[in-house]
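It is worth pausing here to work through a concrete case rather than discussing structure prediction in the abstract. The textbook approach is simple: state the sequence, then state the predicted structure, then interpret. We follow exactly that order.
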Amino acid sequence: MQAMIINKTGGSEVFELAEIATPTPGPGEVLIEIAYAGVNPADWKNRQGMLAQYRPYVFPYIIGFDAAGEVAALGEGVSEFSIGDRVFTPTNHGQGGQGSYAEYAIASVDRVASIPDQLSFAQAAALPVAALTAWQGLFTRGQVESGQQIMIHGGSGGLGSFAVQFARVKGARVAATCSTANVDYLKALGVEKVIDYRTQNITKEVTAWAPEGLDYLMNAVGESTLPDGMDLVKSGGTYVSIPTLVDDGDMAASAAAAAKKNINRVFSTMDDQNTSAMLTEIANLLASGEITMPPIQEYPLSAVADAHAALETGHTRGKVVLKVADL
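Step two, the predicted structure:
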């Protein structure tokens, strides 16, 4: 199969298109022929070697967590899917397997979900890591409920675009921060209180909107961008940060400070619990029209360097995907 590989970590120049062996699914695994691969901020950090503490780098190395395509082969014991089924998945890359910047990838069956007819491969590929991280941060770690006042710091990116909508459909009152260019975008997603961090004081705006403090705060940008975040959350509330690997501050000190204020402080990354069921629920929300897909920037696999450059700016709206094949 063809794959976009790296043989060392570094800048985008380390990418090269190569022919490597097509993997074979083991027991409980699915081989997926990939139409689109999703691109996440973790990918460029992965390319630079920042994920070494979480997973091995064995070269040639294929980056990419998210994939959408068709089932090409089934491992022993897999009966949930059939050859040719349209599916999407965060693959097994987070568990040490090769990634999705390739014609084929392996995923454990409990990490695979069917794509509703209403969704394209590109849309499905944009979902797994961003949508699951948002969902788990809100509901698994945060227990966000109807009527609560919550804020998503960084509401217009891939993860933020999902988070504001997930919270809204569950009945929460949602505030979110963004740049001037994305104010109307967030209003269109149903955000009650949009805060332009370029022209408005976040603390002042949140205090006026939620005088007693936020029930829940998600920081999807970085600790240095919201230095007063803890002060915005009420006693008994929850403050969730999505680790960036480049701007996470002193996690232990932050947790200790939160404990003194009776705030549940969580640094939340995507885990593998109930992945298939969560993906199915999220896809059904999209298929029913209860939430909408964020804008998608599409690049061919050969332009992976451009896709990474776009994400490295930290200011993309919505999601980025790579087209691998016409299926």
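Step three, interpretation. The radius of gyration is 20 Å. The chain has two domains: 2-126+293-323, 130-267.
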